[in-house]
Amino acid sequence: MTPKRAVEEILEKVNIMPLEDQCIIIEILKNRYREKRREEILKHLEETMEEYKKGLTSKGSVADLLKELESD
Predict the structure, then answer these.
(1) Measured between alpha carbons, how far is 11 from 24 in angstroms, rounded to an integer?
(2) Which of 2, 16, 18, 31 has its CA 20 to 30 A from that of 40?
(3) What pLDDT score does 53 carry?
(4) What pLDDT, in 10s, does the model give residues 1-10?
(5) Is the CB of residue 14 less than 8 Å from the CB of residue 25?
(6) Residue 25: is it exposed, middle or buried by C-beta count within 10 angstroms (0-12/13-18/19+)?
(7) Distance between the two ends of the chain, CA-based, in angstroms?
(8) Angle at the Cα of 44 from the Cα atoms of 40 and 26, rounded to 5 degrees
């Protein structure tokens, strides 16, 4: 089964559910999305902090960044 077909089947099943159940599904999906997004942000933060500790990052203004990019 293709992912597109799986989504279509899920939506068809949800469509025949009572509105209250649909609302519950929406809330569950929103909460799961938020949690995954938080996990992604935390992972990115951890990677950034590790790069900072290793000295792989630099500080400066946007103007400093543009100057650095132009000099390369």
Answers:
(1) 14
(2) 2
(3) 94
(4) 898 999 999 9
(5) yes
(6) middle
(7) 49
(8) 15
Task: Find tokens 């790069």 and name the residue.
Answer: 51
pLDDT at 72 over 80: no
Residue type at position 44? H
Q: Are 51 and 57 in contact (CB under 8 A)?
A: yes
Domain limits of the chain? Answer: 3-71
pLDDT one-digit tens code per residue, 19-56: 999 999 999 999 999 999 999 999 999 999 999 999 99
CA 61 to chain centre: 27
pTM for this prediction: 0.67
Q: Is a pLDDT exceeding 90 seen at residue 58?
A: no
Q: What angle do CA 33, 52, 62 make, to 5 degrees?
A: 85
Residue type for position 52: Y
